Amino acid sequence: MGSRVSVVVTCHNYGRYLRECLESVLAQDRPADEVIVVDDASTDDTPAIAAEYAPFGVRYERVDFRDACLSYNHGITIATGDLLAYVDADNALMPRFIEALAARLDADPHLAFAYSDRRWMGEAPVAAWEEIGVRPGDIGRSYPPDPAMLVHRNFIDTMAIVRRSVAIELGGFRTLPALWDYRFWITVLEAGYGGGYVAEPLYYYRLHASNMILTSRPQQRGCLHVIRREHFAKPFWQPYTRPALTLRRGLLPGRGVPGGMPLHVTLAPEVTGSAVPAAVTLTVTLPPGVEFLNWACDAAEARLAVGGGTLVAAITYPVPDGEAARRAPTVAMTLIQRVPEPAPLTARLAWEDRFEGAHHHEGDLALPPQAIPAPLQGHLDGAPLQAIAGQFAPGEPISLWAAFPPDAAHANVPLPSIEADATGTVYLDTRLAPQGLTALVAQGEIAGNQVVLLADPAEPLATPAQAHTSRARRIVRRLRGRH
Predict the structure, then answer these.
(1) Nearest alpha-carbon partner for 150 in 103, 101, 185
(2) Sign of torsion, CA 460 462 467 473?
(3) What radius of gyration do the chain's Cα atoms show?
(4) Among 223, 91, 74, residue whose Cα is nearest residue 158
(5) pLDDT tens-digit readout, 107-142
(6) Cβ atoms of residues 415 and 387 within 8 Å
């Protein structure tokens, strides 16, 4: 036989939503053993609406706390069930809420609470939805109760089922202007209990102008500092609040182009323990004789900046389950080496712990000695330098990049995308970049492509016929197609 479940509906001037809430409670697939409305000093029609449901076994309790946290604690005191299902009167349950969450707790006595995803609803103004970053009907995902994730932020709502004996043991919910539920979940975990997560939306969360998720935002930062000082210095949280990272490095030379050697560098900030940083900053300093062509990061919210031979990637870590957060983001760079033996590249990784203490890891990446092909000379149709072409799959769209000399008025910029012809060869007329090309490479895995010289610089090409003749004599790899 399963545990007895008491539903505690907390309400303060939410009479306009109370009927919908109670209807959803009474329509559960697994009926509640007890339903209590805790009315905290409402001045609207909450008492009258609650009285309508007395024939259905709904019990009404009037209190004068003017504090949602104390209303929750009153539910602990007056309920008789083994499990307490907390429901805010402005929200509503889906039919499986009690059945799914109570089953999770009945199956594992070590668990002190169970929670789920939510579905958003409500009549809040557009600005409120934009502030929260969701739309009506969206599913709000929670995550498993990994302590390494919970130190980042609260992703467990009060719309949960709590084991009453544990709530009594821990003294219930302790009052704060905001985030008091967050402090309770943290207290439960550090006491040695666990939480159960059901990965499906089991309730509707209503967004409206007087919703606490909006009205309590100004107090949240201060409350977060209180929680950190009180809890995160305890031994239980140390493995989760002091992140340590290392920097995994990789380097793959590309095929030489006139005047330089493309290099593909990958840098991955790797978490070495349980703690995950909220964000890291990766700063790469290029030595003389090494130039930046392009780079990318596979982290969704990474911000990349380039200036003065320094590349900076600001990477925000996600806060889902621990495994996803510990998956190292990768920063991939394409550089071009213009001197045979450059100095090492310097990479510095910086991050903060949950107490805003600064940490960093710094290391050098040696660049291999390279035989640098001679730079292009001469002119082609009035442009200072010759063209380079790349060999790709036929019909493949290609993004080509031009690297200009350091004293050029233009920095490294992408040129228009061009499709390869039927033979898989891409040609570029240097007139598209009259500022002067020193090298042209393909964005992506350059090492897997053939970067080749289109024609001899000593013989400027003016017509397709001349181009064909020159290719037949001078081309360094077999090419066919049009110029």
Answers:
(1) 185
(2) negative
(3) 32
(4) 91
(5) 999 999 999 999 999 988 888 888 888 999 999 999
(6) no
Average pLDDT over residues 421-439: 42
The lowest-confidence range among 69-78, 146-155, 323-332 is 323-332
pLDDT, tens digit, for every residue of 184-218?
Answer: 999 999 999 999 999 999 999 999 988 877 777 78
The first and second tokens of residue 143, run together, are: 């995550």
Residue 407 burial by Cβ neighbours in a 10 Å radius (0-12, 13-18, 19+): exposed
Compute the distance between CA of residue 106 and CA of residue 172 in angstroms, rounded to an integer.
Answer: 21
Work out the burial of residue 88: count CB atoms within 10 Å of its CB; fewer than 13 is exposed, 13-18 middle, 19 or more buried: buried
Cα–Cα distances in angstroms (integers) from residue 119 to residues 7, 141, 185, 186, in the given order = 20, 9, 21, 24
Identify the pLDDT of residue 257: 64
> What is the residue extent of each domain of the chain?
5-240, 245-365, 388-474
Q: How far is CA 229 from CA 223, 243, 354, in A?
A: 10, 17, 10
* 376 and 410 Cβ atoms separated by less than 8 Å: no
CATH annotation of 245-365:
2.60.40.740
What's the maximum distance between 2 C-alpha atoms anywhere in the chain? 99
Do 5-240 and 245-365 fold alike per CATH? no
The CATH class of 5-240 is alpha beta
